[in-house]
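> agent: user asked for a holo structure of the chain below bound to zinc ion. Plan: (1) validate sequence alphabet, (2) canonicalize SMILES, (3) run complex prediction with ligand conditioning, (4) return tokens. Step 1... ok. Step 2... ok. Step 3 dispatched.
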Amino acid sequence: MIITMGKYEYLILGPQGSGKGTQAQALANLLRIPHISTGDIFRQLAGQQSEFGQELDKILKTGQLVPDDITNKLVANRLAESDTNSGFVLDGFPRNMKQAEFLAKIKPDVLAIYLELSDEEAVKRISGRRVCPNCQAVYHLQYNPPRVDEVCNIDGAHLLQRTDDTKEAVLVRLANFHQQTEPLLDFYHQRGKLKRIDGAPPIDVVTANLRAILGL
Ligand SMILES: [Zn+2]
């Protein structure tokens, strides 16, 4: 008897703070398939001396979004590599309808996983983050507090909050996320290719739930 294995083709959607990158990596490790993060691809290319790398570096440093045609091409190239033969987990792509429609043309069977997290919880997770300006250690006021309030365990430096992590900054990014992502949820739902999962529980519980929902 010949057993044909289906390909493991996934993409993960979720707001900042949902643990999207962590879950994408866990799924990729479990299935021994690549975790393809567009953020990682951009950063890697932006570090190169090529003309394209420098251009990309400029786009990222000014906080602009990488144009869709460039992003689509980079993802298509990455998905053409042989390590994706048995599947992949996309993270950070697609982020809008244009990208989703492009992906549907080259990979029509991708299953979208949506890690749901309330805005309130996302704000709590991100705005509670504190960073040591000296050794870059990361803390969380609730989930991973330093032994002494606002002071680094390692070197005693006074902890800071990144400007990106303030409640106001997080709310702006969440609003953008909802605006761009809600149409994607409809798109995948209509194609019968959407699974929703609660991103609020601890990381390993979410991973276990993810495995159960995907039958892995
Ligand atoms: Zn420190």
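> agent: step 4 complete. Summary for user: The domain at 8-119+171-214 is CATH 3.40.50.300 (Rossmann fold). Residues 132, 134-135, 137, 152, 154-155, 157 surround zinc ion (CB under 6 Å).
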